Amino acid sequence: MMEIRTPKTHKAKRVLEKRAPKLVENGKKTLILHGTKTSATLSSVLMELYRLKKGGAIKYSRRNENIRPFESGGETSLEFFSQKTDCSIFAYGSHTKKRPDNLVLGRMYDHHVYDLIEVGIDNFKSLLSFSYDKKIAPHEGSKPFICFTGEGFENVPELKQLKEVLTDLFRGEVVDNLNLTGLDRAYICSAISPTKVFLTHCAIKLKKSGSIVPRIELVEVGPSMDLVIRRNRLPNEGLRKEAMKSSKDKPKKKVKNVDQDDVLGKRGRIFIPEQEVGKTPLPDKSKGVKRERREGKLKKKKNKEEGSASKKHKESE
Amino acid sequence: DMDMETDQIYQIDVGNLLAFNPNHRFSSAPSSREELVKECVTEGTKLVQAIADTLFNLPSTETNDGPLVQLPPPTTKLPREKHLPRPKPPTKWEEFALKKGIQKRKKDKIVYDETTDKFKRRHGYDRVNDDNDIPIIEAKASDEPGEDPFAKRLDDKKKRVGKQEKNRLENLKTAAKAGALPSHVQLAVTGLPISGTKTQPKKIGKEALGDVAGLAATSTASGGKFDKKLPGEKPPKKQGKHHKYLPVVPRYGWVDEEKEQTNKVLGKLLSKHSHEILNVGKAINMYNDKKEKKKSGRSDKLKAKKDITKKKPYANKAN
């Protein structure tokens, strides 16, 4: 016995339509959660990551005991959360003796795990420890610059995957138009060794230069940390091919009030609002606004300045 | 791609504000932490500068908030978060229409009504050809005498609507099979079908559950009075006789309810129509029954009969 269920409110309908698969997708949301045990550094990493991605991230505060991303059965909770919150990237933090300060960054395709990469966090510096001029502090939700330096990102497969995951994580929404005054943050990732990446977050200062292009100056605002590659899982080829598929055609926008004809050619329709003759605004015919009155007043002023008591002065009174 | 220094070419993706420098080599023995950080930030600055060079040279439009540029589409391919929307399979009607060559025709919202010589709307209040507006239905030769044609019309409409709903459900099921269910529709399974039957299992109502819980409570020694209640469970309904006790002392200014009660009964008994209140037939029957019972004298089968012939044991033991 099946039943058709449709949303009873417009808001619910809009939410469902937002979450439906589309040609052009929304920005990926991030789910931040942690396991049974977290260290001080790890909890501040997760908190600061949430702050950097405010507006496009959801942070869970309870501990999750049954999440083990690299084990076959340990992903069900993650997939369930991803379904409920509509998040396609997750950052799972845990702290064990074997893997201290562990962060697993993963992506989902159709709410199933697509790929995983596990990093350890070293030399973490919280954003509270950086001192800078508060005026250049980046605004929440601004589109960042992302920079990768180092040959490791091209040669080492794990670093290549990490580069892709970090791009996905920091990218945010894909926009058509960008306001150049709103550019105020940059993420710098440098492959300092084949297994280590230094990540830092900087604010942008635009300085005057000779041309229209300003001179860029970066100021570290934090957080900054070293990411040490541990384990990773690449997506299988079939799934990767399917996820990378993109349709070439853009959704055709309906052009209204224009029609094409072979006989008459291209014709457009213009709609003019109804002309209410009885309701046209009439001129202001009140006494004080009349031109003669205004000019008379001006002349009165002039005569007063000259100091002569003329006939007109008496008349205008 | 931008040439910065002699053999350094950066990979720039303006659509993502992304830049990659694949040629920089970090020394395997770093001098100090600060030196390393400084080096990274300097390299980063160069990359951001490279992106900004392209960005600020794009054609921009001036708005109130600042210069707005049209970003090119991103070049780095990243995996999608959800599958591409799948094409919807044609519905039963669409297949039929395709086969027969039936074209869709756009219907007007306002239609001319010949019975009233006016333009009326097609759907909604005061519509054209409203089924409910027909005052007289002429009888045809094929009509049965006892049948109500208006009720028959309503019935037919119900059947048509039911059939349409069934067809809609079937179409949605085929769409769901192909993975192309519309985003705002969900198909839910309401009850498990009992094998062999088509009936829906009956849902137990709130009151029935409460009654059953009350029954279970009576099995306890104190009649369920001190049982722990679940949050939201209502207190048990009062068992046994429901007495309404009137106040012993009548309230000041209020009617003496006890007096009223006795007066009412008396009034009924002593009234002119008191014979009508008494059910004479029932009274006679009751009297006769009582009389017969007394006559037969304890004809209750369940009561053990006393045998006077039997001797009492230990009767002479006292002696």
Automatic annotation (TrEMBL), chain A:
<dbReference type="GO" id="GO:0019843">
    <property type="term" value="F:rRNA binding"/>
</dbReference>
<feature type="compositionally biased region" description="Basic and acidic residues">
    <location>
        <begin position="303"/>
        <end position="317"/>
    </location>
</feature>
<dbReference type="GO" id="GO:0000470">
    <property type="term" value="P:maturation of LSU-rRNA"/>
</dbReference>
<feature type="compositionally biased region" description="Basic and acidic residues">
    <location>
        <begin position="256"/>
        <end position="265"/>
    </location>
</feature>
<protein>
    <recommendedName>
        <fullName>Ribosome production factor 2 homolog</fullName>
    </recommendedName>
</protein>
<dbReference type="GO" id="GO:0005730">
    <property type="term" value="C:nucleolus"/>
</dbReference>
<feature type="compositionally biased region" description="Basic and acidic residues">
    <location>
        <begin position="238"/>
        <end position="249"/>
    </location>
</feature>
<feature type="compositionally biased region" description="Basic and acidic residues">
    <location>
        <begin position="282"/>
        <end position="295"/>
    </location>
</feature>
<dbReference type="GO" id="GO:0000027">
    <property type="term" value="P:ribosomal large subunit assembly"/>
</dbReference>
<dbReference type="InterPro" id="IPR039770">
    <property type="entry name" value="Rpf2"/>
</dbReference>
<comment type="similarity">
    <text>Belongs to the RPF2 family.</text>
</comment>
<feature type="domain" description="Brix">
    <location>
        <begin position="28"/>
        <end position="238"/>
    </location>
</feature>
<dbReference type="Pfam" id="PF04427">
    <property type="entry name" value="Brix"/>
</dbReference>
<feature type="region of interest" description="Disordered">
    <location>
        <begin position="238"/>
        <end position="317"/>
    </location>
</feature>
<dbReference type="InterPro" id="IPR007109">
    <property type="entry name" value="Brix"/>
</dbReference>
<keyword id="KW-0539">Nucleus</keyword>
Automatic annotation (TrEMBL), chain B:
<keyword id="KW-0690">Ribosome biogenesis</keyword>
<comment type="similarity">
    <text>Belongs to the RRS1 family.</text>
</comment>
<feature type="compositionally biased region" description="Basic residues">
    <location>
        <begin position="308"/>
        <end position="319"/>
    </location>
</feature>
<keyword id="KW-0539">Nucleus</keyword>
<dbReference type="InterPro" id="IPR007023">
    <property type="entry name" value="Ribosom_reg"/>
</dbReference>
<feature type="region of interest" description="Disordered">
    <location>
        <begin position="286"/>
        <end position="319"/>
    </location>
</feature>
<protein>
    <recommendedName>
        <fullName>Ribosome biogenesis regulatory protein</fullName>
    </recommendedName>
</protein>
<feature type="region of interest" description="Disordered">
    <location>
        <begin position="58"/>
        <end position="90"/>
    </location>
</feature>
<feature type="region of interest" description="Disordered">
    <location>
        <begin position="220"/>
        <end position="244"/>
    </location>
</feature>
<feature type="compositionally biased region" description="Basic and acidic residues">
    <location>
        <begin position="225"/>
        <end position="236"/>
    </location>
</feature>
<comment type="function">
    <text>Involved in ribosomal large subunit assembly.</text>
</comment>
<feature type="compositionally biased region" description="Basic and acidic residues">
    <location>
        <begin position="297"/>
        <end position="307"/>
    </location>
</feature>
<dbReference type="Pfam" id="PF04939">
    <property type="entry name" value="RRS1"/>
</dbReference>
